[in-house]
Amino acid sequence: MTNPADLTLAELRDALKDKKLSALEATDAYLARIEKAGKLNAFITVTADRARDAARACDARLAKGEGGPLEGVPLGVKDLFCTEGVLTTAASHILDGFKPPYESMVSGNLWRDGAVMLGKLNMDEFAMGSSNETSFYGPVINPWRRAGDEAALTPGGSSGGSSAATAARLCAATIGTDTGGSIRQPAALTGTVGVKPTYGRCSRWGIVAFASSLDQAGPIARTSRDAAVMLRSMAGHDPKDSTSVDRPVPDYEAALGRSVKGLRIGVPKEYRVDGMPAEIETLWADGVQWMKDAGCEIVDISLPMTKYALPVYYIVAPAEASSNLARYDGVKYGHRAKEFDDILSMYENTRAEGFGDEVKRRILIGTYVLSAGYYDAYYLRAQKVRKKIFDEFAGAFEKVDLILTPSAPSAAFALGEKTADPVQMYLNDVFTVTGNLAGLPGASVPAGLDAQGLPLGLQLLAKPFDEEILFKGMYALEQAAGFTARPDEWWG
Amino acid sequence: MAIDKDTVRKVAHLARIAEPEQRLEPLAKELSGILGWIEQLNEVDIDGVDAMTSTVDVKLPMRADELQDGPTGGGQPDKIVANAPKTEDHFFVVPKVVE
């Protein structure tokens, strides 16, 4: 029999329903792979016993012909989602030992639908980073390597544990979060499918907050079908998150096979950056041709505000982060400094010890742009430029149904390659961050390999709550690209 | 705008992060680099543009002012203090604040 870990999530789901294998067999197969993949550093916590117990309960339900849409499917969870009774760190020292007394809405929805949690996945500290190098638990290593080269590459970030675990088949699929590209960029760098839904589609309740007006949860999976199955379970209204939107969750999987004929695909000329490899340009042109061949109408569009998106993001996100992260004071949970003179130095020392350099940098930027005398010049101006970006997209979507761009400006890069200059690292999100600022749903689909054998992704963006059209487009790209490459299993 | 060492000291204090004296100069340089890059926003004409408040066109919902069931409800002091570094009888313990 084939290894259960080689089945896609949708295939595994069907095999479990048809009792071709048991949930426990599937869970054990994944746990065995996780055990051998320590070199990837994808997990912060593996919940093996809990997973086996959950799988046995799934088998009992499946035996009676019961069970939810994800019954018995083993998944991994970014360590930004609070999981009841299970260590939740946000990959930060400051959350040492934190075991939430409650479950995040999105992860809870997965368990409600029968999924099994394998463990908690590594990430950039508080989701701040594009390479997983800011994690207190050390960087995740990309399962992909350049041909003939053993250099450790980044799996992207911040959901780098999620992307690496999906690419290395350590989980049937994973969940991540995307504030500026943290699902789509890592998906692009690991040859996986990553979806950031519309802002408000998934509840943010129980997700450790980074930038609340931008954060959204989404799946990283092997195929667009798997991502569609995941998102249907994750999404939904939650009164506990006042920004969660009360509208029905469609059956995204059903949208997959539908024809894309007549869909208007926008190609924005501004989605190019200096030094972008020619291979990415070529792949993008291939993507345009694939959609044309599938019967889509290609529309050249212009989004001139694109270049301002990252600077806006690096005001808005740090400002919100500086406010959200004020809660880490050494009083209610996590780390408290051992040495201090009074309550003020307790706060200051706790936060100095608990936060890493990138998190401190962003808190300082955020505090500065919100401080008296600078608020108008930075924060207010950024929110106005953000409105212009939003309006520009709204205008474009009067003429097109989807926008097709590259997902990231480069393939996976080596660890340490971009850590010297924060701005160079920030540029990784140049194509994805616009979707967060405007609240749009977006996805990265693996579309090809570069000359060194590394995966490259294409991004689709859709109108708010047009995830069905997004999935239809993703499936068409996926069919045309025929991406079947896999990394060599050098890690074990 | 370039920010200097004294500004970093002030901002770090506002953010309640102890930054050792020798970190202030390098931080001033890093933050100035980031802020300098951000300053390209000054090129954008924002006359008459409203500041963005929400990407989703919905009215924030109101809920009834009553005790909820479940994790957001009351009556669970054990859970509230379970993760605290120092507690006493369902209270968080901190250094003396009022003399």
Keywords:
heterodimer, A: 492 residues, alpha/beta, Amidase signature (AS) enzymes, 11-stranded mixed sheet, 11 strands, B: 99 residues, mainly alpha, two-stranded antiparallel ribbon, 3 helices, 33% helix
Write a brief structural summary.
Chain A has 492 residues and is an alpha/beta fold. Helices cover 37% and strands 13% of the residues of chain A.
According to CATH, what is the topology of chain A? Amidase signature (AS) enzymes
Order of helices and strands of chain A: HHEHEHEHEHEEHHEHEHHHHEHHEEH
Q: What's the overall geometry of chain A? A: globular
CA-based shape of chain B: flat
Coarse structural class of chain B: mainly alpha
Quaternary status of these chains? heterodimer
The structure class of chain A reads alpha/beta
**Strand content of the residues of chain A, in percent?**
5-15%
CATH homology group of chain A: Amidase signature (AS) domain
Please explain how this structure is put together.
The complex is a heterodimer of chains A (492) and B (99). Chain A has a single domain (1-492), classed as Amidase signature (AS) enzymes (Alpha-Beta Complex). Chain A is built from 16 helices and eleven strands. An eleven-stranded mixed sheet of chain A has the order 1-3-2-4-6-5-10-11-9-7-8, with helices on both faces. By secondary structure, chain A is of the alpha/beta class. In chain A, helix 10 crosses helix 12. Chain B has a domain at 5-43. Chain B contains three helices and two strands. Chain B has a two-stranded antiparallel sheet. In chain B, a hairpin with a 2-residue loop joins strand 1 (87-88) and strand 2. Chain B is flat and about 55 Å long. The model of chain B has no long low-confidence stretch (mean pLDDT 93). At the A-B interface, helix 10, helix 11, helix 12 and helix 13 of A face helix 1 and helix 2 of B.
